[in-house]
Write a structure and sequence with these properties.
The structure is a single chain. With about 675 residues, the protein is of the alpha+beta class. It has four domains: about 110 residues, Beta-Lactamase; about 200 residues, 2-Layer Sandwich (Beta-Lactamase); about 180 residues, 2-Layer Sandwich (Heat Shock Protein 90); about 80 residues. It contains 21 helices and 17 strands. Strand 8 and strand 9 form a beta hairpin. Helix 10 runs antiparallel to helix 11, helix 13 packs antiparallel against helix 15 and helix 19 runs antiparallel to helix 20. It catalyses: ATP + protein L-histidine = ADP + protein N-phospho-L-histidine. GO terms for molecular function: histidine phosphotransfer kinase activity; phosphorelay sensor kinase activity. One of its GO terms (cellular component) is plasma membrane. This is histidine kinase.
Length: about 675
């Protein structure tokens, strides 16, 4: 019984134990399965993370803008990134296994050990990121400076198996640094060797820097001055008081041109001019002052001498002033005398010239006296021209010249000049013409026509006087601006005369001056060009000359002329362009010859009394009465109409020729 109970109890314990271990095993198996699945998931996550890190690393490795090289302790290349391939102009396949110093960096053999020694030093500091800088070569001539960051990679046992080197090309930076250093050296050289002194002062007025120039002036060394001397210590006592007064009155203000006296180390003195500028921080606190110093000792000596000279000059000026006043007074007296005497001379001279003209045209004048009358006329005209020149000069010097403005046209001006000079040029077989006639057909102005005409008459008269063959021309150029009320008109008189030597051009516009050729060639006062220049300047213009001996001369002047806004009809009528070349005179002469024959026929057909009366009135130049006589003649003959037109237009030459060709005894 007891045995059965024991057996039953033992069986129960066994079953209970078996059941416990069975469920424990089953639960552990389940836990193991859960743990396995969890570890499997973690492993996959770790592996995925590793793959992502490797991809990121590879991306960085491939796209980095730096040189990346992996090499072993025996200097053999494991790999290079694409940037390194491009930089060293090689490929990864060609570089792997090669010597990093000899093959990739292309270091010459004699220097390779030195570079390898630098690289080997990396392994003495395996825990640090070692930075190095050395030169590498690309090709045969391209040398680059590269800065390297080196990191040793270790295996699981802690032994170095690879070096990761990251490099950056700093060649341009090194060049810039070298250039900057050279610039600094040049600036420093300029600072020290400048022709003026430079120094800087701190807030205690102590010299903190000074250049070599100022040290040479003072006779000190830089060590003696910098940090030891105050600026006041360099001055004389009087200059110290002056400087102290200025700086106390204007603290921290810029100083300009302050004159002080410096004391050298050997106790000699010299004068300087000081310019000073102060520098402040953002809070307005004084930092430093910078000053330039100029040695003005020579200037001070010169100023002392100049003061002495100034006193002497002032005394001399007083004497000269008295002499000038006396000269002005004498010049005024001369001008008044010239003005009076020329006025008195011109009146009888006009009478002489007028009577000589009447005598010359008188058909009753004996032939043996005509030469004397012509000489009388020529000399009278010459004398009158000289008197007029002197009178004009007297007016100019006396300041009595006035401007008389009147409306006129350039066509009108040309016609007047052509009528004055065309026959005179023709008599010398010299052509005379207007150039640029198309420019003046509609040019109307308001100005002093008499003075402009006088200038041109003088210039054309000189051209006639000094030209024996060839041509003389007048060219008129107009520079117009619609926005201005005036035009700039340029008159150019060009001749083929004897010319003027270049060394005498400077004196031709002076009063009473003539060139050597001019004075020996023709008589004259030497006033014409001087008057021209002063008249041109009075009208607000300028005059110029170009000349070559044996070739000719060109005189030109330009003046501003006020444009005429409203042109009167009578001025337009007067401004119809006539002949522009002396060749046209011959054609007009032929026409006048034909007209003269018609008028002569009319006179011959008239009664002797009428013919005699008409010739008498022409001889005494009583054209008013002659016009009345012709109007009373009841005929429509062409000869009468031509004669009336010539009388009305006062064609003196035609009428005088008609008188000379008629029978003087009629």
């Amino acid at each position: 019984m007891i045995t059965g109970i024991v057996f039953f109890f033992a069986a129960f314990v066994f079953l209970l134990t078996t059941y416990y271990f069975y469920f424990s095993y089953k639960r552990e198996k389940k836990l193991r399965l859960i743990l396995f699945r969890k570890n499997l998931n973690n492993s996959e996550e770790i592996e995925r993370t590793i793959r992502e890190k490797e991809k990121q690393y590879q991306d960085i490795y491939d796209t980095a803008n730096s040189i990346i090289i992996r090499w072993s302790p025996d200097f053999k290349i494991h790999s290079i990134n694409p940037y390194a391939e491009e930089f060293f102009q090689t490929t990864k396949d060609l570089a792997e296994g090669k010597d990093v110093v000899l093959d990739l960096f292309q270091i010459p053999l004699e220097k390779s050990n030195e570079v390898k020694s630098q690289l080997w030093n990396i392994f003495h500091k395996p825990e640090q990121n070692i930075r190095q800088e050395y030169e590498v070569f690309i090709g045969e001539s391209d040398k680059r400076t590269v800065t390297w960051s080196n990191r040793i990679l270790k295996n699981e046992f802690g032994y170095p198996y690879e070096v990761l080197s990251i490099g950056n090309d700093i060649t341009n930076r090194k060049i810039a640094e070298e250039n900057l250093m050279k610039s600094y050296e040049r600036i420093l050289d300029l600072y020290n060797n400048a022709p003026c002194g430079y120094h800087s002062l701190d807030n205690n007025n102590i010299i903190v820097s000074i250049n070599d120039t100022e040290l040479d002036w003072l006779g000190y060394t830089r060590e003696e001055v910098v940090g030891n001397f105050k600026f006041n210590d360099l001055m004389t006592e009087s200059s110290q008081d002056k400087y102290r007064l200025i700086t106390n009155s204007f603290p921290n203000e810029n100083l300009t041109g302050v004159e002080l006296e410096f004391v050298r180390k050997d106790k000699s003195t010299f004068f300087i001019s000081l310019n000073s500028t102060s520098t402040f921080d953002k809070n307005g606190n004084f930092i430093i002052s910078k000053s330039t110093v100029f040695d003005i000792t020579d200037r001070k000596i010169a100023e002392d001498k100049l003061n002495d000279y100034s006193q002497k000059i002032q005394l001399q000026n007083k004497r000269l002033q008295k002499a000038v006043e006396a000269a002005i007074k004498a010049n005024r007296s001369k001008s008044v005398f010239f003005s009076k005497i020329t006025h008195e001379l011109r009146t009888p001279l006009h009478a002489v010239i007028g009577f000589s003209q009447i005598l010359d045209k008188d058909p009753n004048l004996p032939n043996h006296l005509k030469g004397y009358v012509n000489s009388l006329y020529d000399n009278g005209v010459h004398l009158l021209g000289m008197i007029n020149d002197i009178l004009d000069l007297a007016k100019i010097e006396a300041g009595k010249m006035t401007e008389t403005r009147e409306p006129f046209s350039l066509v009108q001006l040309w016609d007047t000049l052509f009528s004055m000079f065309s026959y005179r040029f023709s008599e010398k077989s010299i052509s005379f013409e207007l150039i640029g006639s198309e420019n003046i057909s509609s040019s109307f102005y308001e100005a002093d026509l008499q003075k402009i005409r006088q200038i041109l008459v003088n210039l054309l008269g000189n051209a006639l006087k000094f030209t024996n063959q060839g041509s003389v021309s007048l060219e008129i150029k107009i520079e117009s601006n619609p926005d201005q009320s005036f035009d700039t008109v340029r008159f150019i008189v060009k001749d083929s005369g004897i010319g003027i030597p270049g060394d005498q051009l400077h004196s031709i516009f002076e009063a009473f001056q003539q060139t050597e050729q001019g004075s020996s060639y023709k008589e004259g006062t030497g006033l014409g060009l001087s008057i021209c220049q002063q008249l041109v300047e009075f009208l607000g213009g300028t005059i110029h000359v170009k000349s070559f001996v044996g070739v000719g001369s060109e005189f030109s002047f330009e003046i501003p002329l006020t444009k005429l806004q409203i042109v009167p009809d009578n001025l337009k009528e007067k401004s119809k362009l006539g002949p522009i070349h002396t060749n046209e005179i011959f054609q007009m002469n032929k026409q006048e010859e034909s007209e003269a024959e018609i008028v002569q026929s009319f006179l011959n057909d008239s009664s002797p009394e009428l013919k005699k009366e008409i010739l008498r009135l022409i001889r005494i130049q009583n054209f008013g009465q002659l016009t009345g006589v012709l109007k009373e003649i009841q005929t429509e003959e062409k000869g009468k109409k031509i004669l009336e037109q010539k009388v009305q237009n006062k064609k003196y030459k035609f009428l005088i020729d008609l008188l000379q060709n008629s029978n003087p005894f009629e």
